[in-house]
Structures are given as C-alpha cells and as structure tokens.
Write a structure and sequence with these properties.
Rubrerythrin, domain 2; Regulatory_FmdB_Zinc_ribbon; Zinc ribbon domain protein
Length: 74
C-alpha cells in the first residue's frame, strides 16, 4: 500500500497517510477532509553498500519539503 503526503487546508499541518482503495484521506490533527496531495520523492535503495546518511541539498539543491520556501506551511 502506498504512503502519500498531504497538507491539510484547514489546520495547515502535513501528514503522511496510508490510503487504501477509494478511501478519502482525513487529517489526523483536526479531522478535516480538505487535504491537498503533496509531491514527494520516492525512496530508492542505496547501491553503494556504505552506511552513508542521505544528505539534504537544501533549497538551492531542489529539495522540496517542510523547510522549503515552496511549501505552503513553511
């Protein structure tokens, strides 16, 4: 089952939700149903074999998330 990232338009909180079939997503913070699906970066397995942590490229590197200037709640 895929996980999707949503932003609640009522309380402006972001949440990662598991949505099955025709289920309507509901904000876990306020119970609102005015959720906007956010674009997310899919996880990819590392082929390097090392235990290197993923680096955060920051706004100049094209990262989009809660710390990004294009994120409505940030």
């Amino acid at each position: 089952m895929p996980l999707y990232e949503y932003l609640c338009r009522d309380c402006e909180k972001a949440a990662e939700l598991l949505i099955r079939g025709d289920e309507k997503p509901v904000c876990p913070a306020c119970g609102g149903q005015q959720l906007m699906k956010l674009l997310s970066v899919p996880a990819a397995p590392s082929t390097s074999g090392g235990g290197v942590e993923p680096r955060n490229p920051g706004p100049a590197g094209g990262s989009c998330g809660s710390g990004c200037a294009c994120f409505p709640g940030g």
